[in-house]
Design brief:
This protein is 16% helix and 30% strand. With 754 residues, it is an alpha+beta fold. It folds into 3 domains: 465 residues, no CATH class; 101 residues, Neutral/alkaline non-lysosomal ceramidase, C-terminal domain (Immunoglobulin-like); 107 residues, Immunoglobulin-like, CATH 2.60.40. A hairpin with a 6-residue loop joins strand 10 and strand 11. Helix 2 crosses helix 3 and helix 8 runs parallel beside helix 11. The N terminus is likely disordered.
Length: 754
């Protein structure tokens, strides 16, 4: 800490003011809203390393979920805003070079009126994205904004919310409990100790901006800009495929729920600093799909709720500045660090992204209280961080919401404090404020002072010291106050540099060789099965086209023609390549349309087509037993329990519920050594989640006899492959289901991901 103090003495105690003739943004006008959207493919070629887990020995060898850049441009006649999100770990690449990605976007888009003030650039925080952002990737992001800008048309918008309590958990609960006065060792906290209940340990609110475009045929869905808080870490440190994780699933699942005229959904992460996803699945793919489905359902609820509130008058406004972590005192007894410094807890990583050092108990290791530093608190400093000391902070107004940017990862409680401060100074007509993390710059984490001194991973990665989050909150207040008063934003502490404008070289989609098909699906294929395709082609996955399907699933129509059903632009294909040998898997959903299908592999040098194959209902449902209970009238109710086929952790991609639903279960009663004549039917009871039937008399000692195919669910899947079985009343076998993957997928992988 001596070095920090020495530097502090030579640095100004107030933010340096390098005035750049700041733009005065006038008060928002209630003009006609115009809006446009754009989306581009930013998936890199194979061979790169992943940003987030710091494992340069693990490289991408394929794609699970394409990475995209998505843009929403809004214009009220006076102001124009661009809300841009990319499937990247954050808005800066791993060397945190200058100019930043946003600097380059502004340079590429400046002729259209986009500046640092009115363009918000954020990452979804997938940990299965690239470390480097080459010119081609930046140009693709800029192309999404240009497309959105060109597509502006009259529109209407409204905000809505949904509460989602089963899609996240606080991964540093003891640090969070410090906000309530607790000081607990790692592993001794629980959500039950929060005096405000478990929901207060997470950030359960999902906010959605619905935009419909006006057409001569009435309003049509255009965009859904979504704000939710959870790490995108379902894809674990051992992963080797590019993936947009749960945000990529959520936007695709949401679009599928709305059909042909679905809007473009754009997910922006919020106060995810201490928020893990649910990890509800036996592998990374199914966990991401389950998380994405939960978020997509909440998105749909919020989308539907906004339908009756749409307005063409959506006030827009913007304020922006650059702050400086210059060692200044920001309040009595509160001084920020003039240099970014990692703590020991950073070295071990977090619970859902552990490094090889996590096992040594790095989280919670801190200085004794009596040795705390006034700037870095109880942090055990291990070295400097590569982050800028002059990050951007931005406040945008969109209708009755404020978007408060944070150049890093705020915790849930830090976000609540920022929200409260922003609302206290908000312009008239503002109903809420959303804290947008991972925006414009990346400078680590932002914790409350109480959380910081616990020195969990988040505190060890809060690099500018104990009070750094308070400087962000102060800046939000200053920007929001300026917006309310119609005055200038505080002058930036440094001039943004000119960015790059080179369009770069896109992947060609041409691996240089003609492909050969080695194996296709083995017919017939059942629902809830995963089939595989094998072929040979170019090295490093270079055969994949950019922005177009690589793998196409088609269904045969009655006239013999083939119609597109799905592709690798969706969420059910995963492919990998090693030494020119490609392996692709497709997971057939439980409600997949029956029929005859084929797969085509489309590349610059070849198109390969598999032999046709039929998709049949699943025969893998399993009845697990039944219970019998006496009810009024001298009768007995039988409740049967069943399950879907258990997922294969080594192959499955899609999440599915443990129990089927709907349909009928047919059985016979056994009396002693003989079966009673006649087949009885138990029908699905959605309230009980069982197949139920009421029989006369006392049947609590009864046994039942089930033939293969006894159960047919509401999707026509059956228990056809279950052998003949008999159950006594009360005999219910445990579900045959693999355990969830758990935070981080277990211990960190060894060298090369082994």
């Amino acid at each position: 800490m001596v070095r920090a103090r020495e530097r502090m003495a030579t640095r100004p105690r107030a933010v340096a003011a390098i005035v750049l003739a700041p733009v005065l943004v006038a008060a928002a006008a209630n003009g006609q809203l115009r809006a446009g959207v754009g989306v581009t493919d930013i998936t890199p070629a194979s061979g790169g390393e992943f940003f987030g887990y710091v494992r340069p020995d693990i490289r991408a060898d394929g794609v699970a979920l394409r990475l995209t850049a998505r843009a929403l441009v809004l214009d009220d006649g006076t102001h124009k805003l661009a809300l841009v999100t990319a499937d990247l770990q954050g808005p800066e690449q791993t060397d945190f070079r200058s100019p930043t990605a946003k600097d380059s976007l502004v340079s590429r888009l400046g002729s259209r009126g986009f500046t640092h003030d009115n363009l918000l650039f954020a990452g979804t925080h997938t940990h299965a994205g690239p470390t480097e952002y080459p010119d081609f990737l930046l140009e693709q992001v800029a192309r999404a904004v240009r497309a959105a800008d060109d597509a502006r048309a009259p529109a209407r918008g409204a905000w809505s919310t949904a509460t989602l309590e089963d899609a996240s958990g606080n991964r540093s609960i003891e640090a969070h409990l410090a906000d309530h006065g607790f000081d607990l060792p790692r592993g001794e906290g629980s959500t039950g100790l929060d005096p405000l209940g478990r929901p207060h340990t997470i950030a359960p609110l999902l906010s959605l901006l619905r935009i419909d475009r006006d057409t001569s045929d009435g309003p049509k869905p255009l965009a859904a800009w979504v704000h939710f808080s959870a790490h995108a870490t379902n894809f674990i440190p051992a992963n080797t495929t590019w993936s947009s994780d749960w945000p990529g699933v959520a936007v695709r699942r949401f679009a599928a729920s709305l059909g042909v005229e679905a809007p473009l959904a754009i997910v922006s992460n919020g106060t995810e600093g201490d928020q893990s996803p649910a990890f509800a699945g036996p592998n990374q793919n199914t966990a991401a799909d389950e998380e994405g489905q939960r978020v997509a359902r909440a998105m749909r609820a919020a989308w539907d709720a906004a339908a009756g509130q749409l307005s063409a008058a959506l006030p827009l406004d913007a304020r922006w500045t650059k702050i400086c972590f210059c060692g200044q005192v920001i309040a009595p007894g509160q001084q920020v660090s003039p240099e970014p410094l990692y703590g020991l807890a950073f070295i071990g990583g977090a619970e859902d992204g552990p490094s090889i050092f996590y096992q040594f108990g790095t989280e919670g290791q801190r200085r004794p209280a009596e040795e705390a530093d006034p700037i870095q608190g109880r942090k055990i400093i291990v070295g400097p961080a590569p982050y800028t000391t002059t990050p951007e902070v931005q406040v945008l107004r969109v209708g009755d919401r404020l978007l408060l940017s944070v150049p890093g990862e705020p915790t849930a409680e830090m976000g609540r404090r920022a929200r409260a401060a922003g609302l206290a100074a908000a312009p008239a007509g503002v109903a809420d404020a959303l804290v947008v993390g991972l925006a414009n710059n990346y400078t680590g984490y932002y914790t409350t002072p109480e959380e910081y001194d616990q020195q969990h991973y988040e505190g060890g990665h809060t690099v500018f010291g104990l009070w750094s989050g308070n400087l962000i909150v102060q800046t939000h207040t200053a920007l929001t106050s300026a917006m309310a008063a119609g005055t200038l934003a505080p002058p930036p502490a440094a001039a943004p540099p000119e960015g790059t404008t080179d369009p770069g070289t896109p992947p060609s989609g041409d691996g240089g060789v003609a492909g050969t098909l080695d194996a296709g699906p083995s017919p017939p294929v059942e629902r809830m099965w995963t089939f595989e395709i094998v072929w040979h082609g170019g090295l490093r996955g270079q055969d994949r086209p950019v922005g177009a399907p690589f793998l196409v699933l088609e269904r045969q129509q009655a006239d013999g023609s083939w119609t597109l059903v799905d592709s690798d632009l969706g969420f059910a294909f995963v492919w990998r390549e090693t030494g020119g040998e490609y392996h692709a898997r497709y997971d057939v959903a439980r409600d997949f349309a029956l029929g005859t299908y084929r797969v085509r592999i489309v590349s610059a040098r070849y198109t390969l087509t598999t032999a046709p194959f039929d998709v049949l209902p699943s025969s893998g449902l399993r009845v697990r037993g039944f219970t019998a209970a006496r009810i009024a009238g001298g009768r007995t109710r039988l409740d049967f329990v069943a399950q879907n086929p258990p997922p294969d952790p080594g192959r499955d991609i899609l999440s599915r519920p443990k129990s089927p639903e709907g349909g009928v279960l047919r059985f016979r009663l056994r009396q002693g050594s003989r079966l009673r004549p006649g087949v009885l039917a138990a029908l699905w009871d959605p309230l009980r989640g069982t197949w139920s039937v009421t029989l006369p008399g006392d049947q609590t000692a009864a046994s039942v006899h089930l033939e293969p195919g006894a159960l047919t669910d509401g999707l026509d899947n059956t228990s056809g492959s279950q052998p003949t079985v008999e159950f006594a009343a009360g005999q219910v076998a445990p579900l045959d289901w693999p355990p969830d993957i758990g935070p981080g997928g277990g211990p960190p992988p060894g060298p090369g991901g082994l």
